[in-house]
């Protein structure tokens, strides 16, 4: 692998604990073909949540187009430097798309970069979180086929629902699974060929509005139908909150707001938002966290 193509960054982990050497790192892929569904936001919050629970977290950043995740981490590092805070930062490896013009050569190069990066993080992490890019790409499929848990944030509207399933607008019955569901189906088969453990797929609604109760109920019903048809679990989602957009330029998560150095007011809305992150973590049923107190 050409190391120049892969910018590695060693992070500062939070309160780490002695690692159980016999257990393999658990891979959580955050993915959805749809852009702007909240993948990077969820990946960052999950990684900080797990670090605050004493877990070692590695992050694979595949967001090859926008680099929003890398920017988020740069902002977080800058925040630590300027405020003197000591916010945990996950060990992160960014994987770039191959520049090779020949498709086979490009895919072989990307596969090698991905496998090596995953292996590197496996050496030192309890959890590896993969921030998958929007769209359908070789790297994205490769990541999905490596997932132990797959978390799919979904904007709370039928526009975004369309990539998961085609539903009858009257009955809300699923007519057929669509692009992204087929991609996951394909990756589930690939994972089954290479590993004995299946992909646990959890779909979570994002940016839920308290205003449009009818839309919320209809999307919920359609999602229940689709979950039964194509096999995923549903997590309670995250509400629409301005704070997520405000935190980005500072590289902060909701879980950092009560830390020293934070000058963002912590409100009741933020308490509720944190609870939503806790609920997500509970539904994910991650290994090693059974019965563990959620300490954030
Ligand atoms: N629950 C929410 N409430 C309000 N804004 C949100 C919420 N979740 C995400 N956002 C905002 O929506 C925008 C897109 O989110 P994000 O970058 O996490 O999506 P993404 O799926 O990673 O996008 P891409 O496909 O481009 O990588 C960001 O500005 C983010 O702050
Ligand atoms: Mg992203």
Please describe what this structure looks like.
The chain is 41% helix and 15% strand. The longest helix has 22 residues, at 103-124. 42% of the residues are buried. Helix 3 packs parallel to helix 4 (138-144). The chain has a single domain (3-284), classed as P-loop containing nucleotide triphosphate hydrolases (Rossmann fold, 3-Layer(aba) Sandwich). The chain has nine helices and ten strands. Helix 2 (68-83) links the parallel strand 3 (57-61) and strand 4 (91-94). By secondary structure, the protein is an alpha/beta fold. The protein has helices spanning 39-52, 68-83, 103-124, 138-144, 158-161, 179-194, 213-230, 242-247, 268-284, and strands spanning 8-9, 26-30, 57-61, 91-94, 127-131, 149-155, 165-167, 174-177, 200-206, 233-235. An eight-stranded mixed β-sheet has the order 1-4-3-5-2-6-9-10, sandwiched between helices. A two-stranded antiparallel ribbon has the order 7-8.
Q: What structural keywords apply?
A:
alpha/beta; Rossmann fold; 9 helices; disordered N terminus; binds magnesium ion
Topology:
Elements: E1 8-9, E2 26-30, H1 39-52, E3 57-61, H2 68-83, E4 91-94, H3 103-124, E5 127-131, H4 138-144, E6 149-155, H5 158-161, E7 165-167, E8 174-177, H6 179-194, E9 200-206, H7 213-230, E10 233-235, H8 242-247, H9 268-284
Parallel strand pairs: 2-5, 2-6, 3-4, 3-5, 6-9, 9-10
Antiparallel strand pairs: 1-4, 7-8
